[in-house]
Amino acid sequence: MSFDPQVVTLGFFWYIAFLFSTVCHEGAHALAGKLGGDPTAFEAGQVSLNPIPHIQREPFGLVLVPWITYFLSGWMMGWASAPYNPNWQRSHPRRAAWMALAGPGANCMLMLLAGLAIRWGLARGFFQIAERPAFASLVEATDPQRLGFLATLLSIFFMLNLILMTFNLLPVPPLDGSTGIALLLPERTAVRLLDFYRSSQMALMGLVLAWVAYNRLFGWLVPKAVGLLFSNY
């Protein structure tokens, strides 16, 4: 990808959406942990939409990697994390599961809000469906000078949060779905499973499996989601 001004400007739209969405994800983890009895992330300052505590914890995943992946591939990826107390997780596996699912839940809310805003703009005539819908241009503004940035930003928010939600729900460590699955298991089985995840060093293998699985899921998921978004238009 080139470094011309238009590409850099689009990159800032991407980064606004990526940083805000990721901070909401981790802030939701931290809030759910505090409400469930684990103040670890709260005491680290992560029950907040202020990106600074999140960046201080994961500067590589929240600053460097997103921009590298953007200039290499045209879209951003990265990571962040919220600390938790493993002893609390063992004592309360179901609360830990809700803490894990709170992050994808936040992304779901952002995706739905972006989708509602897009449909409202379409109904009002502010937006039109892009001739060639892409990751960063599901809709185009009918008045590009006034609303072009908003159409682009909403498109990115919708697609990015769709991916953050569904990818993190895959039930493999270290993704949130691997802990969220504890809601479906007897408590003792859930504790044994979470202990196994911590002791088995499966994180790297899990990420590889998730990446392979999601590459297949992505091709089915995105057309379905975009079809629902634009239904009746």
Question: Which structural traits does this protein have?
Answer:
mainly alpha, 71% helix, 233 residues, 3% strand
Description:
The chain has 233 residues and is mainly alpha-helical. It has one domain. It contains ten helices and two strands; from the N terminus they run ααααααββαααα. It has a two-stranded antiparallel sheet with strand order 1-2. α6 (93-124) runs antiparallel to α7 (144-168). The two termini are 33 Å apart. The mean pLDDT is 92.
Structural class: mainly alpha
Output mean pLDDT: 92
Strand adjacency order, main sheet: 1-2
How much of the residues is beta strand, in percent?
Answer: under 5%
Radius of gyration: 19 Å
Tally of DSSP β-strands: 2
Q: Which secondary structure elements does this structure contain, and how are they paired or packed?
A:
Blueprint: H1 5-35, H2 40-43, H3 51-57, H4 59-73, H5 86-91, H6 93-124, E1 127-129, E2 139-141, H7 144-168, H8 176-180, H9 187-200, H10 203-229
Antiparallel strand pairs: 1-2
